[in-house]
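Form 12-C: Joint structure prediction
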Amino acid sequence: MRIAVVGAGALGLYYGAILQKAGKDVYFLLRSDYEAICSQGITVNSVDGNFHLPKVKGFRTASEIGTVDLVLVGLKTFANHLYAELISPLVGSQTQIITLQNGLGNEENLADLFGEEKILGGVAFLCSNRVKPGVVQHLGEGRILLGEYVRESKSRTELIAAVFRDAGIDCRIVSDLQYSRWEKLVWNIPFNGLCALMLKPVESLLLFEPTRNLIIDIMGEVISAANAQSLKKNVPLSLAEKMVASSKRLGHYKPSMLIDRLEAHPLELDAIFGVPLRRAYEKGVQMPRVQQLFALLQLTEKD
Amino acid sequence: MRIAVVGAGALGLYYGAILQKAGKDVYFLLRSDYEAICSQGITVNSVDGNFHLPKVKGFRTASEIGTVDLVLVGLKTFANHLYAELISPLVGSQTQIITLQNGLGNEENLADLFGEEKILGGVAFLCSNRVKPGVVQHLGEGRILLGEYVRESKSRTELIAAVFRDAGIDCRIVSDLQYSRWEKLVWNIPFNGLCALMLKPVESLLLFEPTRNLIIDIMGEVISAANAQSLKKNVPLSLAEKMVASSKRLGHYKPSMLIDRLEAHPLELDAIFGVPLRRAYEKGVQMPRVQQLFALLQLTEKD
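Section 2 - Result
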């Protein structure tokens, strides 16, 4: 099985390297990190043990890779306008495409380009940073909730999950991908948003009562919006308190949006804020706090 | 008429200097600026014309001033715990006290200490900065809406208004001081709050559509809270659009809370956010955006 990784940041490099280490045939589409990775390979410094892959199949263009069986999309969502250019040469009649990206709207955009039956989504719970070209720091977690975009889970879903599991990745199949996407947003919207806005790690927001209460209120808004989306089951309101409690052990963890802002990269605002706000609005649900956070984060991008 | 100015920052110095220039008998209670003002006097650089007062009656303690007829309170509200110490020696049986401070709760606190019949409030619309000890930059406006705290407007209210008017200050008597306080909060809460949080002047927030819309939404919350307070008349919702339109000419103006943050001073959060939020909550009105802004501003003070 030929697997292409498109978007070789912290997430793409991590999962791609794990799969290659387990003997899978992995092709990395690389841009700025091409030279470094082709000469020095990929290093993963991980809480689960460090490893180094000296030889990596790196390519500058998708045409050099050609069609593959599986495309793993790990692009930052602000680069989604490059989908056609980066992914089309990889896609044959049997190719399946999994987006492991953040937020909402990615499956939809891929489906528009490549046909909805080809698309799966994975909600990745992964704490990792790309510390320099070809070097990933894996701080914890790594499990994937894998779901079909429009079809019922079938044998192909099981086959793909098995590829991840063979490599030691905790991969569970979910019957309602949108439920898992919204569930992750319950965490991502307050923590990515507030940490990026305030330039503070998770812990600073959780240890201060007014902002801890704010996080719970924001989570409540996201849960209300989720439960207006005709998901197969409701997201329980108690998830907010549970997530806050379990996030305390993250300490000085910097969510990806904070790192993006510190490194003066664009922020993934549309996928994490814009699309969820529009989906809520379409169902008549207001998210005043989320909307405020979105407006202020957009302002920071105007600097 | 002996007039004491307590809190000789931008506002206290400005009104005190204007009154002295008009021949009133003004006593300034000074702390850190005592030396500079006693030796060099007060300079007002104003859009209405510059002037200098070489000789000023400055004192280090209220006891040295003794009782006066009128106390003008211009303290930053985070110093309100000093009311008793700073004001008591100035107050005799005939003394009247006017707070020109920001936000809500100041009249109440003064009334608790000195009796409610002694208290008046002035809502000051003044753009001024204290650029160094004894030097005020007056950028525009300056009118005062003067009201009794608990009594009906009476001859004494007219007498005090006449003192301001004699000095050329536009001073109108209002029958409902609380209405004017809330009306000013409709401006102060979004502009002081957002400018201080984002470290940006008024214009940056107004010229960007998402934050301009946010300002209008925040103003809507404050207007709803105001209209739950049994004011003599309702604050019209149209005030929001009107204030946004008229604020555009303020350009790079930095509201006081932004200046306080830039100068690493405490922020007037309780008077401008905390008390209004509690008053709204008591009436069953939610202000989710205001509450969020309050929480994030409190977090900035923890640095």
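Section 3 - Comments
The radius of gyration of chain A is 19 Å. Residues 177-198 of chain A form the longest helix (22 residues).
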